[in-house]
Write a structure and sequence with these properties.
about 300 residues, alpha+beta, about 50% helix, single chain, seven-stranded antiparallel sheet
Length: about 300
């Protein structure tokens, strides 16, 4: 669709709580914001969606064009996306379905929206079916691994302070690492191929999210806290050291997953377990030390940033 048309739809969607007129009137529509594969800039597009098997699905149909749409290429590079659905907005991990799962989900999509079948008939490429996953927090009392949850129908937790925001990010990181661990424990090299893709998607999402979170803390939050709360100097120094240690483990994990088809499963699981233990200890320590201070800081900020902040 032309960019000007997309922009009009996006503005109308946001101004009317997700309702639009024209060719999308009465249809199931969401806004998907991806990160440019090359530019690194956010790109928002309106897309039709389908719910099937408790999942939120979008199809990279491009109306049957011979090439994949740019938003699909973007999410292959950066699987963490932003979804706007009605009045709600939330982060999601975009995971393309493969193999028999893709066939089953595409059949379900066509059953509800037959036009996608027409688009598939117009092109030789297989139309990707993308699952927009919205991770749920892990079970607090379960000592083991749990299965991923479908998209939540309930409202997202209200974020009123920087403490709330920190907990939101930590919950997301824990859920992503849980997904990666589940898939690594189920993974057998060469069988099945779809699991390898899921494993890479969740690992990439987790690693990107962890890097972004720690960079934001190191460059903005921690320096600001050091100025306003000098008594936290020791805590902040320890957190910075933990960031470096977790970063080294993360790079080792990325290298392992680059060869997931040949990596020894036990080595992969051992590295994930080591990272999980260090990350959980880090998140627990950070929450215990910083949440009381961050609870008094509104989020998003309600006034101008302090000088030098």
């Amino acid at each position: 669709m032309p960019m000007s048309f997309n922009l009009n739809v996006i503005e109308e969607f946001r101004a009317n709580d997700g309702r639009v007129g024209g060719p999308f009137e009465g249809g199931d529509l969401l806004l998907l914001t991806t990160t440019g594969a090359r530019s690194g800039r956010p790109h928002t597009v309106p897309l039709g969606y389908v719910r099937a098997e408790g999942l939120l699905l979008v199809v990279a149909s491009a109306a049957g064009a011979p090439e994949h749409p740019q938003w699909y290429r973007n999410l292959l590079a950066h699987p963490v996306v932003r979804v706007e659905l009605g009045t709600e907005a939330f982060d999601s991990v975009a995971v393309p379905a493969e193999g028999t799962r893709r066939e089953r989900l595409f059949t379900a999509v066509v059953r509800k929206a037959p036009g996608y079948g027409d688009y598939q008939a117009q092109t030789e490429r297989e139309l990707p079916v993308v699952v927009l996953e919205r991770p749920e927090p892990p079970e607090p009392t379960s000592g083991g691994l749990t299965s991923g949850a479908p998209v939540s129908e309930g409202p997202a937790p209200v974020v009123r302070s920087l403490a709330d925001k920190l907990l939101e990010v930590h919950t997301w990181l824990r859920a992503q690492l849980r997904h990666v661990r589940e898939e690594a424990h189920a993974h057998v090299p060469g069988r099945p191929a779809a699991l390898g893709l899921q494993l890479r998607r969740h690992c990439l999402a987790f690693c990107d999210g962890l890097t972004h979170h720690h960079t934001g803390e190191d460059t903005a939050i921690f320096p600001a806290l050091a100025r306003s709360h000098p008594e936290l100097a020791g805590v902040l120094a320890r957190l910075g050291e933990q960031h470096l240690a977790i970063g080294r483990i993360k790079e080792e994990l990325v290298a392992l997953l680059a060869g997931v088809a040949v990596t020894e499963p036990e080595r992969l699981r051992a590295e994930l377990d080591r990272m999980s233990a260090e990350l959980e200890a880090h998140l627990d320590f950070e929450e215990a030390e910083l949440l009381p201070v961050l609870a008094g800081i509104p989020f998003p900020p309600t006034g101008p940033a302090p000088s030098g902040g």
